[in-house]
Amino acid sequence: MTEAKPIARVQSTKSKVPAWLERIFPPMVSFVFFVTIWQSVILIAQLKPYILPSPLGVINSAIEHRESLLSSAWFTFQASFVAFLVVMVLGTALSFLLSSSKFIEKALYPYAVMLQSTPVIAIAPIIIIWFNIGFASIVTISVIIAIFAVVANTTQGLISVENNMQNLFKLYGASKSQTLFKLRLPFALPYMVTGWRIAAAQVVIGTIVGEYMAGAGGGGMGGLGIIIAETSARLQTGYLFASALSAALLGIAFFLMVNFFGHLLLKNWHESAVQHEN
Fold first, then answer.
1. Fold of 67-277
2. C-alpha distance from residue 203 to each of 110, 182, 189 (Å)
3. What are the sequence ranges of the domains in the chain?
4. Is 6 helix (H, G, I), strand (E, B) or coil?
5. DSSP letter (8 states) at residue 218
6. pTM reported for the whole predicted model
7. How many angstroms separate the CA atoms of 210 and 204, rounded?
8. CB 171 within 8 A of CB 111
9. Which of 234, 210, 235 is closest to 224 using CA atoms?
10. What number of CA atoms fall less than 13 Å from residue 89's CA on the CB side?
11. Phi, then psi, of 217 in degrees rounded to 5
12. How far apart are CA 214 and CA 225, in angstroms?
């Protein structure tokens, strides 16, 4: 009788690369590739700095105007933050109203779509007439641009609850408030978070557009949109690129902040957040 040989243990092939490195490595590779192509185009075509500045020229311009960029980015962040809070509160309230009955949804939803479809440049003069040039007009323009994402996603979540679950709540005699807070709202929360994520990027865009159209803020202070308007008129292309890059970084930071908050709300129960956690 032959002796049974022990079964060889299969070594784990799981990568030992840190998770943070796996997340940042692909963007770093694409960034290096993009900068290389950028610099190569300038060298091959021999482009002038006012047409396309070099990456080093953009960095030097950002360092040279760092105080102005920081103060303007802070102003844009404040306006974006206020606009986002308004979008969250007002957009969620409108969603509850639209989902309260089919008649209200059919009566008001087309106007929400119409507001989203109307070019901002057509209604910006009206907003400026109502609120004057400054912070209020900038925030209002940003809200108009970003609010539809919250309204559309939250409304979709509130009206997508399964009929069987609603009938079960009715069977057990649940009140409307209990059905709302214990069934419809938890079901719609992932939709709401999706709307917040989209709006987080759109409010920064809306604020830049608002600053571009509504002029400087109170006290002669302006945001990144003012710098973009001024540098484009003066052909200060390096400074213009630095301002655009600052706006992009601000949008990314704002999105990550909202994304982290949404993850905290969903991480203990929703599949998307649980899988991301694992």
1. MetI-like fold (1.10.3720)
2. 22, 30, 20
3. 67-277
4. coil
5. G
6. 0.79
7. 10
8. no
9. 210
10. 5
11. -80, -170
12. 10
pLDDT (tens place) for every residue of the chain, 278 residues total: 455 555 444 444 455 667 767 777 788 888 888 889 988 988 888 888 888 888 888 899 889 888 889 988 999 999 999 999 999 999 999 988 888 888 888 888 888 888 888 888 888 888 888 888 888 889 999 999 999 989 989 888 888 877 777 778 777 777 777 777 778 888 888 888 888 989 998 999 999 988 888 765 444 457 888 888 888 888 888 899 999 999 999 888 888 888 888 888 877 665 655 555 55
The C-alpha atoms of residue 273 and residue 222 are separated, in whole angstroms, by 38
DSSP 33-100: HHHHHHHHHHHHHT--TTTS--HHHHHHHHHHTHHHHHHHHHHHHHHHHHHHHHHHHHHHHHHHHHHT
Total H helices, total E strands in the chain: 12, 0
Let me know: does 158 contact 95? Beta carbons within 8 Å.
yes
- The amino acid that residue 262 corresponds to is G
Residue 114 CA to chain centroid, in angstroms?
22
Alpha-carbon span 163 to 158, nearest angstrom: 12
* 3-class DSSP state of 101: coil
Q: What's the CA gap between 258 and 83, in Å, rounded?
A: 13
Distance CA 155, CA 229 (A): 37
Structure tokens at 43: 């060298």
